[in-house]
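2024-03-11 09:14:02 INFO receiving multi-entity request
2024-03-11 09:14:02 INFO entity count = two
2024-03-11 09:14:03 INFO echoing inputs for audit
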Amino acid sequence: GQNIDQPTEMTATEGAIVQINCTYQTSGFNGLFWYQQHAGEAPTFLSYNVLDGLEEKGRFSSFLSRSKGYSYLLLKELQMKDSASYLCAASDSNYQLIWGAGTKLIIKP
Amino acid sequence: ETGVTQTPRHLVMGMTNKKSLKCEQHLGHNAMYWYKQSAKKPLELMFVYNFKEQTENNSVPSRFSPECPNSSHLFLHLHTLQPEDSALYLCASSRGGEGASGANVLTFGAGSRLTVL
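2024-03-11 09:21:47 INFO inference complete, emitting structure
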């Protein structure tokens, strides 16, 4: 079957670095996506990886290893506004997104 | 404001009511989606429309009925719902066409929080 696993909740300190892991199993693979969702708001697109390696975008980076079925989202210099849920999703052979349940990230001062 | 607007933001209805959720996108996208989001569960894809044609119906009960009159508007008609249908209903749009960038880079609305009594 198709499956995405990510931690339910993580806590980190303002100014620190946090890594949110995601493992996936899909029928075919067309990319790994990360979305951010603040409480009561729309999910917003953060990143897309289809090749192995690290993609950096400001304070956020996303990594992909296709051979391991593994991705992570790295958040640096954490700010209070980064408190949100982070949704991992993999695109299968039909370009259907398979979603994880999301990781709630709590930032403490 | 994401460019995808959903109304109403909150809806409470009884099991015998009929109501509709509305979604409008101002992004010039060609694909629109309905998702159900329940607490601590993955997003569940319900319906997909590409260029106004329904291309996906993910075994959704018939008490949910989608309508897509044009590429900018999407409705979800609700009737005789069950309490377990209480959830956040998210509308999304994408550029459409083939490839991950067309189908998987989604712009979401803020959702309609539905409570069924």
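2024-03-11 09:21:48 INFO post-check: The helical segments of chain B are 100-103.
2024-03-11 09:21:48 INFO post-check: Chain B has a mean pLDDT of 93.
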